[in-house]
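Allow me, if you will, to draw on your knowledge of protein folds for a short while. I have a record of one protein: its chain in single-letter code and its fold written as discrete structure tokens. The full record is reproduced below for your convenience:
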Amino acid sequence: MSEIKTIGVYTSGGDAPGMNAAVRAVVRTAIYKGLKVKGIKRGYEGMISNDIIDLDRQSVANIIQRGGTFLKTARSMAFMTSEGREKANENLQSQQIDALVCIGGNGSYTGANIFNQEYGMPCIGIPGTIDNDLYGTDYTIGYDTAINTALDSIDRIRDTAHSHERVFIVEVMGRDSGFIALDVAIAGGAEGALIPEDLADWDKVITHFNRPNRRKKSFSIIVVAEGDEQGGALILEKRLTELYPDLKIRSTILGHVQRGGSPSARDRILASRLGSEAVKALLDGQKSVTVGIVSDKVVHTPFDLAIAGKKSVDPALIELAEILAI
């Protein structure tokens, strides 16, 4: 492999709190190792349009506490075509970029993997998504901030639920995984959590409301993941209202508020650690792998396995949520 002199870093897919901290760590570690760094704006779209800027120490000053991504992000349809990838490669070559660091999720990994196969460009992936659904790491960048943001909202909703003696169904993000919903349900003292990984979740909610010896409680919080097979909050509100017309049921969709805001300390540390490790991995000759933390140890997972691998919630936490809901 030729010597790496210039690294290109980009953020792709959905934004996540901590992405800026990861970029900062990539830039400063690369400079510390004697390398140049260029920022590719708007992910794969920026590769195709040659929207690439030089980055130095000052470029990443005062960003570690900012949410979102200062490099911007986008989902690129053009990069899915061979013509788009060819143009991206031409631009990277013109910028003398020797290797890439991709901060994003599964779709971002897929693009980087195909690009490496076609053009041999070394690329390291960093898991940046609030969903925490990427294989090869215990936690993804943005997840901790997202669950704390959602938890803060649920704590506030609980005040209204108590005051008006209502049942609130709160929908959280997570795509096809229930990590956010399950953690928030446990931490928020919810009476139910509906997640894609638990096919019996609806029956558990019905059992809760039908239990003869149920606590004399005037309100309830039910958390549902956006990808649950039972449907979202609005559908569940209608179904529960039909079953229990005497209950005052309301629904709330937290939406994209969970993706914004200043990253938590845990996300800043995770992002800083993974950003630095990505540069070290490139210098060690790694390519087409992701960096992650498993049991507090850095691991490298091939893109193919990271993309195809299935990560699921801990069944013990599903049981805990059910136990604590009585």
